[in-house]
TrEMBL record:
Enzyme class, broadest EC rank: transferase
Organism annotation: Actinocrispum wychmicini
Keywords attached to this entry: ATP-binding, Kinase, Membrane, Nucleotide-binding, Phosphoprotein, Transferase, Transmembrane, Transmembrane helix, Two-component regulatory system
InterPro entries assigned to the protein according to its UniProt record, in alphabetical order: HATPase_C_sf, Sensor_HK_TwoCompSys, Sig_transdc_His_kin_sub3_dim/P
GO cellular component, one term: membrane
Reactions catalysed, as given in the entry: ATP + protein L-histidine = ADP + protein N-phospho-L-histidine
Keyword Transmembrane annotated: yes
Domain Signal transduction histidine kinase subgroup 3 dimerisation and phosphoacceptor: 182-247
Name used for this protein in its record: histidine kinase
GO terms of molecular function: ATP binding; phosphorelay sensor kinase activity; protein dimerization activity
EC numbers, comma separated: 2.7.13.3
Bilayer-crossing regions: 20-38, 45-63, 69-97, 104-123, 129-149
Keyword Nucleotide-binding: yes
């Protein structure tokens, strides 16, 4: 079978079987009406003609999906004089009620009642007119109600299916949004962690290029520091990329304020001069606040190494009045590392602060100090 698009389509054998069964049942019912119910009926050639036309009427039911109304009206006219087309007529009415609006089905039902009355008055003249009308109205109502019920059930099933598909699509969208948000978070973590390590490598390497009179032991020690920072950067990058490739979001290491001393010690080992001021008890910091504060300090140290190499960095962490203030400042210097910046780190920090319910600002003061300042709610 070839569809409208010109592609080959396999026939629906189940639908073919249903249609064949319906045609056979319709013809058998028509023969039963002709031979077993009527007291008087056509005989001889007229009977053969009746059977032939009844067979064609039953066969015409294959068109019930394409043109149910036209088919029902035509079969109603045929059934008015052809006994063996009686059941095909009723099945066509069912098809109309199954696929069209109720008022259309009612109009076709009226045509069927008139056709049925004509038929019964011709072949069963002994019945009273009122009984004939009652029988035909009952039959038309039964087949119309059957078709309307099937239509209602079909629409109900379709609505349930559409609702289930919509819920499934919405669930997929929610999962995709969660996955996207998680991967965006991982990307921020990767930027913060890897940028920190790479800036340490650049700081050590820059020191080696300008230092003179270093002993072999000093060079080896600096080389070990560069190698250690590079290996850690590669490990963190490999971990982040592995998570981003995964089908499901995973969790990277999330350091908090409890790791702040380790972060500062690592930077001091690389030669960065840092002063730390802590005010208030930070031991029970909420995880989200601790992570944001750690990353803000880390990004501040990284920016200082990239853009103000050799400058002293001041770090202030203060808890007061339900807020956690994190301030990282450094004085701008002429010498700086030749490390390009994309400002994505600052954008990511602002997102962290907003997600934590706080705010972040950065810029130069009148004294020429570059300051990164964040206020996070302690809750």
């Amino acid at each position: 079978m070839i569809d409208d698009a010109g592609t080959t389509r396999r026939p629906d054998w189940l639908a073919v079987a249903r249609t064949a069964t319906l045609v056979l049942l319709s013809f058998a019912g028509g023969l039963s009406l002709l031979y077993g119910v009527l007291e008087a009926g056509p005989g001889g050639v007229a009977r053969v003609l009746d059977i032939a036309v009844g067979a064609l009427a039953s066969l015409a039911l294959v068109l019930r999906h394409r043109a149910p109304v036209v088919l029902a009206v035509v079969l109603a006219g045929v059934a008015a004089v052809i006994a063996s087309a009686g059941l095909a007529n009723m099945l066509a009415l069912y098809a109309v009620a199954r696929r069209r609006r109720l008022r259309v089905a009612l109009a076709v039902a009226v045509v069927n009642v008139v056709s049925g009355c004509v038929f019964w008055l011709v072949y069963a003249g002994n019945n009273s007119l009122s009984l004939t009308i009652a029988v035909n109205v009952a039959m038309a109502a039964a087949f119309s109600a059957w078709g309307a019920l099937q239509q209602t059930q079909h629409k109900l099933v379709d609505s349930y299916r559409e609702r289930a598909e919509r819920v499934e699509r919405e669930q997929e969208l929610r999962e995709a949004e969660v996955l996207y948000a998680e991967r965006a978070r991982i990307a921020r973590e990767m930027h913060d962690a890897v940028a920190h390590r790479v800036s340490l490598v650049a700081l050590h390497a820059g020191g080696l290029t300008v230092a003179t009179g270093l002993s072999e032991e000093d060079v080896r020690s600096a080389g070990d520091l560069i190698r250690s920072a590079a290996v850690q950067a590669l490990q963190e990058l490999r971990t982040a990329l592995g998570v981003l490739r995964a089908d499901e979001a995973a969790t990277l290491e999330q350091p908090g304020l409890d790791r702040l001393d380790d972060l500062l010690d690592e930077a001091r080992t690389a030669g960065q001069r840092i002063t730390l001021s802590v005010h208030g008890d930070l031991r029970d910091a909420p995880p989200s606040i601790g992570r944001a504060a750690y990353r803000i300090v880390q990004e501040g140290l990284t920016n200082a190494r990239k853009h103000a190499a050799g400058a002293e960095v001041s770090v202030l962490v203060r808890r007061a009045d339900g807020l956690l203030q994190v301030r990282v400042g450094n004085v701008a210097v002429a010498d700086s590392l030749d490390v390009p910046g994309s400002r994505r780190g600052l954008v990511g920090l602002r997102e962290r602060a907003v997600l934590a319910g706080g705010s972040l600002s950065h810029g130069r003061t009148d004294a020429g100090e570059f300051v990164l300042n964040a206020e996070l709610p302690w809750m």
